[in-house]
Amino acid sequence: MGNKRKTCNMILIDTNIFIEYYKNNPVICKQIERIDPQETVVSDVVCAELYFGARDKQELANIVADMEKLTMLPIFSNISKLAVDLVKQFCLSHKLRLPDAQIAATALFHNAELFTLNKKDFAYIPNLKLYEPMKRNN
C-alpha cells in the first residue's frame, strides 16, 4: 500500500458513527448498510478511540472483530504533517483537537468522504468532503 493515495470512492467512518451503530441507532444502521463495504474505511485514530471506549472485554472483542473486517488507513508521516498544519491553522479559531485533525488529515490525504455526526467540527476545513447519506442514497 505504501504512501500512495487511493483514487477509488472511500468513506471514512468517524468514531461517533460507530458508537451510534453499536447503540443500534436505526437511522445510522440503515445508512451504514447502504454503503458499499468496499468503500468503507477507518482511520487508525478512530479504531484506537473505539478500543479505548470499550466497556468490557466482550465489547472490545466485538469491536476488534469489526475493525479487522475494514480497511485501516494508518497515519503516515504525510498525514501527520497535514494534521499538525490543520491544528496550527484552526486550533484557536475552531478549537480543532488533534484526534479530529488526524481523522480529517487522513480523509484529505486519501480523498475520502468523512461520515460524521459532528459536521460542525469539520465543515470549515478546506477541501474536506463530508459524506451526505441523504444526497447520495435515495
Which secondary structure elements does this structure contain, and how are they paired or packed?
Layout: E1 11-13, H1 15-22, H2 26-33, E2 40-43, H3 44-53, H4 57-68, E3 71-73, H5 77-94, H6 98-110, E4 113-115, E5 129-130, H7 133-136
Parallel strand pairs: 1-2, 1-4, 2-3, 4-5
Helix pairs in contact: 3-4, 5-6
Provide a brief overview of the structure.
It contains 7 helices and 5 strands; from the N terminus they run βααβααβααββα.
Count of domain modules: 1
H/I helix tally:
7
Q: Order of strands side by side in the largest beta sheet? A: 3-2-1-4-5
CATH topology grouping: Rossmann fold
The percent of residues in helical segments reads: 40-55%
- The radius of gyration is 15 Å
